[in-house]
Design brief:
Helix content is 42%, strand content 15%. By secondary structure, it is an alpha/beta fold. It has a single domain, classed as TIM Barrel. Strands 1-2-3-4-5-6-7-8 form an eight-stranded parallel beta barrel, surrounded by seven helices. Helix 3 links the parallel strand 2 and strand 3. The longest helix has 17 residues.
Length: 232
Amino acid sequence: MTRPLIASLRGGFIVSCQALENEPLHGPEMMAAMASAAEAGGASAIRANTPQDIAFIKKKCKVPVIGLYKKHYPDSDVYITPTLREVSEVVRAGADIVAIDSTAMARPGNEKLERLIAGVKENFPDTPIMADISTFDEGLEAMKLGADVVSTTMSGYTPYSPQLAGPDFELIGKLAALGRAPVFAEGRIWTVEECLRCYEAGAHAVVIGTAITRPQEIVRRFVTRLKVKAQS
């Protein structure tokens, strides 16, 4: 059964407000302002990284916040809310939904995804789990383990997933066709037309980050294409 909060996001447009430490807009005040602007424009939810950013955004915005905490461990390539410790910090910061890396890559301490999801359900039963996956098998496994929603966030960002230039429409469609859990489309979505294709493929909601909230990447995209045009 789909949780009411997840159900309420059906057909929604979610904006990911994140900035890395080396980027100009890094910092909770900046991200809270970005989230507030997204909310004013009609975003149905915000996706945010770090407890600090989540807490600031919760003070500024009324829409739900999908929280995550990017943390790197020396023994693992998994970095999106990799352990129960990060989950705890995200939930305490006020996240309404917690996103966790649910790929097949080795986890910190070689912990199994099954154990992490069980731990989240036991310790934070009121917080829905978003499973960030990169392949169909990972999505199916996350559904079997009880994730409340599956997101295609990691498609193209694991070495074994399709390295596509655009959204992974096929993955969205195959997972949505299962009818087992809502599917959020995320990753390399740049246009309204691509958003519509995600919905047509069966996406419950669409998440966009870079195309809206990372100005340096938006400018770089323009400059690169203009240079190519000028040289042709």
